[in-house]
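Re: [help] complex structure
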Amino acid sequence: MIYFFDGSKDAFLTAFLLAFRDDSAVFTAGNRQLSLGQESIFVRTDPQKALQCEKRLMELDKNCIRELTLLLRSGEEERSQIAFDYLKLIAKRKRPVRCDLSQDAVIAATECMRRVTYEVHRFKGFVRFMESESGALYAPVSPDNDICDLLLPHFRERIPEIPFVIHDVRRAKAAVWDGSHSFTAPLEQAEIVLSADEQSWQSLWRRYYASVNIPSRKRLKQMKGYMPVRYWKFMPEKPAAATGDLPVREPPANHKECGDDVLHPLGSS
Amino acid sequence: MIAEETLKILTESAKYDVSCSSSGSGRKNTGGIGNGMPDGCCHSFTPDGRCVSLLKLLMSNDCIFDCKYCMSRRSCDVPRAGATPEEICELTVDFYKRNYIEGLFLSSAVQKSPNYAMEQLVRTVKLLRTKYNFHGYVHLKGIPKADYELVTEAAKYADRMSYNVELPSEKSLRLLAPQKSKESLLLPMKLLQREKAEFSAEKRKGFFLPAGQTTQMIIGASPERDGQILRLTQSLYRVTGLKRVYYSSYIPVVEDSMLPAMQSPALREHRLYQADWLLRFYGFDVEELVPEGEDLPLDVDPKCAWALRNMHLFPIEINRAPLEALLRVPGIGAKSAQKILTARRYTTLNFEHLKKMRVVLKRARHFITAGGKFYGSDDTATVRGLLTAAEQPKNAKQLSLFDAPSVLFSLPSGREAALAALTGEL
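Output below.
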């Protein structure tokens, strides 16, 4: 049986309750090519069932729901299946399994979570703010995983007196700190007037970046390993960056993102 | 706003300072801007593969010293520039809030006199902390021969301070940096360490170098061998309590008859760092790694070289070996060792498991058994051939085996070293 759901945690948990005894269950939040003869079901969120499921899982492993939310943020196509396999193992063994590091389900889940948290860590460094006329800061990002709100606490502690927006242009959402509250909101395109000095600071930064390099020790491969080219788009120090021009919404990545739009299995409409 | 040209000059004279780490300080934001990030944070990477974490600047490159290897030396004809404390503070804060940098690394040439240069540094960091309310990371360079009062004052505001040892022996120092002496570098380090110990013993308020001290040595400008360099390193870690020793491959930026004209190979620097890690996190003693008058082998890494000299200790069984032994297997690092310890509580691990867990087996397989099975070769010559052939065909040379004392697992303080290995790098 194939279980489709909208990608949210509650929908996942509702579906989990239906599926965890099904050994051939396939979990997916995106569109998926159906193979002939496979039954499929689209699971709608049932808050009560989700709560029941969450409670039971928390009894078995009090950290697993936090892990589930991390897994569902992943940009990997297989994320729901990885989360399902991992939670199923917990349900089967009735205890935490995260330390059983040679188990396939645990390896897959650990790796998947690591990619999400690692990207959060990287973006604490790679986010680049621009200053608007009002003094508020704006940073466009397009991370692989759905992490822009996970970056919020870090910057809120760091620059509590300055309002800022971290805009995930790929997922058309933004994490906002207005100086006293933080929240996330859908945001297609931002319109911002840059402060008078912004271009000069960016230009100083480019000059610094160029000066601090040691040309006789060129190691491009290493640089790209640490700072992949796909992240350069919004970094003023890299030539690929569109400095000053505000980004428009990008087409979604090759797999369908779980957004507000309801997903249907292919061929069901 | 600072002029672009000034920034360029002050950056280019500062960039040969290797240290760029921003870890070790948990300074909180108490109104204003910035905080510490104990794990450190890299904000960008330059085409030379180095990370940009701190805004690395000299306050001035106008120097009265005449150190042969330095491009800011008095006798060198280069454009000179300087920045005011205000300019530096403004630059730091504006870069910081745009998230370009994690903090400031401020150094200075010895302008006018050591005390004058140090005063400028102290003034800047004080201004940054008090007027600009900046709580981000600040690394200050100590100026040799400056008064202790100034140095300890600086330590109250900076997160980390460093005096560069520069050259690994007193003789070379006298030759190439005539105005510096061993004492002028080591004494302030020891003083700061003592003050810091007092500070934490008395549980005084505020901060005193929360991220400790580091130093740097230039490799390849003088004739010292790796063995000598690493002995100095080990004593710096044990006696002076340094957090890090950085090695900087000599790059000829100025011509001088006393200096080599060639750039020192990056591989040598890399091997020194590998050995450095073995000293700090893997429970090795320098005596096990390399004799005093020799260099580290270039064709294999230092741990591998040690293991090849001590083949009688291997193979070890992955399911039973203690952490200290796992850490000594070539190719198994702190993370893999920890993974193995955790996973083997559940099942007897075999090679298939290790592969799935992404433990790198290329080197390790010659030194371990998994569930009693061995997939390597136990002939030293064959193993050496297998491990070097792929990596360094040109530099491959016959090495004298059995030339170092084989002290088995002599951890200075077993548990602590093991823990340090697990909690990671800095």
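Residues 127-234 of chain A form one domain.
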